[in-house]
Design a protein that fits this description.
The protein is α+β, with helices and mostly antiparallel strands. The chain has four helices and 15 strands.
Length: 235
């Protein structure tokens, strides 16, 4: 990813900055409003997230071309979804190299301030996670707050700001219901581009009774077994 490749978007970005700023302001204002309570579990550790969910798939973005026209249909393992530049004049993405010559690619918005919208998840997807951060005009990761807004199919919303966002900082969510959308955006007034890597989609974990719960159920099970034996002996 070179500075020249992103220079093509600078004129467009300046031309539409006012409109984009208004759209971003609407998003930020809406995010500040109280949202319906939603039951979800938050994870900041990648291994803990994978251990808590059911079957999952990961989209590394390593197969991307340098410039990608959106909305783009993607797969995280066997789970399909779509990615779109939410408010961009042109729905484009850039792929960035984690380091020059690296095979580890990141998905980044083409026009700063528009955000990336992930949607179109399958009916079994209740968990989502990944590495969400900002990159500068040259494609280098920068220390800037990242806004996340997730919504399930029942309209329940979870939103937060990641103040310590970086390419190595994981964030994941597990909802009680099917996931509908995840919106990733930046609030920096400078040219900072919303970027994602290693997006994980997951099903909910099968609930297994805690050991303590099993011991609590044991006396009741023993009583039922005793009564059943008494009934058989009385016949």
């Amino acid at each position: 990813m070179t500075i020249l490749s992103r220079f093509r978007s600078l004129t467009m970005w300046l031309t539409f900055r006012r409109a984009v700023s208004m759209a971003t302001a609407v998003v930020v204002t809406a995010a500040a409003l109280p949202s319906a309570a939603s039951a979800q579990t938050i994870f900041t550790d990648f291994a803990s997230f994978l251990g808590a969910v059911g079957p999952y798939g990961i989209d590394t973005f390593d197969d991307l071309d340098q410039e990608v026209e959106g909305p783009v249909a993607r797969l995280a393992g066997g789970y399909g979804y779509a990615a779109a530049a939410a408010a961009a004049p042109l729905n484009l993405f850039f792929s960035l190299e984690a380091t020059p010559g690296s095979s580890d690619l990141w998905l980044s918005e083409e026009t700063a301030g528009t955000g990336i919208l992930f949607s179109g998840f399958g009916g079994s997807v209740r968990g989502i996670g990944g590495f969400f951060f900002g990159t500068d005009f040259g494609g280098t990761a920068v220390n800037a707050p990242v806004h996340l807004r997730a919504e399930d199919v029942q309209g329940k919303v979870y939103q937060t700001t990641l103040n310590q966002a970086s390419p190595t900082a994981f964030f994941g969510l597990l909802f009680d219901h099917q996931l509908a959308t995840l919106f990733v955006s930046m609030s920096s007034p400078d040219l900072v581009f919303a970027t994602a890597n290693d997006l994980v989609l997951a099903e909910g974990a099968t609930r297994v009774p805690e050991p303590a719960s099993v011991w609590l159920l044991a006396p009741g099970a023993a009583l039922l077994l005793h009564n059943a034996r008494r009934r058989r002996s009385q016949r």
